[in-house]
Amino acid sequence: MNNTILMVGAGSYLPEKVLTNDDLSAFVDTDDAWIKQRTGIHQRHMVADGELTSDMAVAAANDALSAAGLTSDDIDIIIVATTTPDDTFPSTASTVQHKLGSYQAFAFDIQAVCAGFIYALGVGESLLRSGKGRRALIIGAESFTKILDWSDRTTCVLFGDGAGAVVLEVADTPAQDWGVLSTVLHTDGRYRDILYVDGGPSSSKTVGHVRMRGQDVFKHAVEKLSSSMNEVIADAGHTPTDIDWLIPHQANIRIIDGIQKKLGLPPEKVVKTVAQHANTSAASIPLALSAATRDGRVKSGHLLAFEAIGGGLSWGASLVRYGRP
Ligand code: ACO
User: Fold this and answer.
1) Number of CB atoms found within 10 A of residue 89's CB
2) Ligand 1 site-directed mutation target among 35, 38, 159, 285, most atoms within 8 Å of CB
3) CA 324 centroid distance within chain
4) Model-level pTM greater than 0.85?
5) How far apart are the first and last CA of the chain?
6) 116, CA 20 to 30 Å: which among 98, 167, 278, 290?
7) Residue 29, number of CB atoms within 10 A of its CB
8) Do residues 78 and 54 make contact, with C-beta atoms less than 8 angstroms apart?
9) Is the pLDDT reported for residue 296 higher than 70?
10) Is 113's C-beta closer than 6 angstroms to any atom of ligand 1?
11) From CA 279, how far away is CA 218, in angstroms rounded?
């Protein structure tokens, strides 16, 4: 069994429409200063009418494939992490497979809300490690603005839409300390009521809206994410000082800064996109990674640390040596 699963490309897509904090304050009782000070968010992107989660996922996937020097024919597995699928079924991943024309690939969705990308990465890595394919597309895609209650200022200012993707590839020859080095996944359903959607096919036959006890989520986030980070760093035989880039879930600048301080990392080693993208749930990590590969910060050979938490509560972390050796 080959034991190196490389991450060989990243891509992203953001809808054209931008909603600034000032735009929001025209119809919600909020203001730019409050949102910036409490969250670090300046603006968010928003899907156009008729633009679907699968459309954004396909655009991000094509961008990642081109970054990896591959085509849709090269993919054996497609995993879409999303909480805002096109429809209740079939999976958004099936639609993505069809739109990409990757009929040789099997495809399915993963639902772990804001932790979805880490979960999809962990599952994709395991499938490749167990010989179920050579390459996997791991996509996070969200139309989160579709499940917001625009009269609830405690949630509607926090989220945005977008998609990001990475390509995982089984290395031809095992390469020590390259690729996905360690991933941990955690869930604690006792906290399901601090962040949830008040609807669903089985409970109400509706889509529902996001509900959140923000301060409770905040407390869990810093503690659980820094301990997951420490788990993967130790498991991979590294120390925090080895990390080239922390690429965290982009929920709130204060959570990101709190984790950076707990890990003892210099602030300039953290990729932050929360100001421009807001919280795009499962899309936020690959969107941030893609921004940092595109502008040249993240290079092949860099050690990347990912972490995310979301409804469930579900959370996890991953340590990856990016690129091809
Ligand atoms: N604009 C203006 N005022 C607001 C707004 C708003 N958008 N929202 C809340 N307020 C008010 C509240 O009503 C409250 O007023 P009061 O004191 O008169 O009662 C005051 O601001 C303070 O509210 P708090 O909830 O105490 O504000 P806090 O500093 O905790 O910030 C926030 C709220 C931003 C939600 C914060 O708790 C947080 O970021 N939590 C993490 C949750 C998160 O990021 N969730 C995303 C999904 S999960 C994830 O991805 C990690």
Assistant:
1) 10
2) 38
3) 22
4) yes
5) 19
6) 98
7) 9
8) no
9) yes
10) no
11) 14
- The answer, yes or no, to whether any atom of ligand 1 lies below 6 A from the CB of 310, is yes
Residue 175: partners with Cβ closer than 8 Å, 6 or more residues away: 4, 6, 325
- pLDDT digit string, tens, across residues 116-125: 999 999 999 9
Which residues neighbour 227 within 8 Å (Cβ) at sequence distance 6 or greater? none
Q: Using the Cα atoms of residue 67, residue 73, residue 75 and residue 78 in order, give the sign of their dihedral.
A: positive
**CB under 8 A, 24+ apart: contacts of 291-296:** 291/12, 292/245, 292/247, 293/10, 293/67, 293/322
155 CA to centre of ligand 1 in angstroms: 8
32: Cβ below 6 Å to ligand 1? no
Please name each of the domains of the chain with its CATH number: 5-170 (3.40.47.10), 179-321 (3.40.47.10)
- The H-assigned helical ranges of the chain are 21-25, 32-39, 53-68, 92-100, 116-129, 153-156, 214-235, 253-263, 274-277, 284-294
Which phi and psi (to 5°) does residue 73 adopt? -70, -20
Question: Is pLDDT at 1 greater than 80 in this prediction?
Answer: no
Q: Is 258 touching ligand 1 by the criterion CB < 6 Å?
A: no
| Residue 231: partners with Cβ closer than 8 Å, 6 or more residues away | 182, 184, 317
Burial class (CB in 10 A: 0-12, 13-18, 19+), 302: middle
Cβ neighbours around 276 below 10 Å, total: 19
Tens of pLDDT, residues 162-180: 999 999 999 999 999 999 9
* Concatenated DSSP letters of 121-136: HHHHHHHHHTTS-SEE
Nearest one of 194, 168, 204 to 114, comparing CA atoms: 194
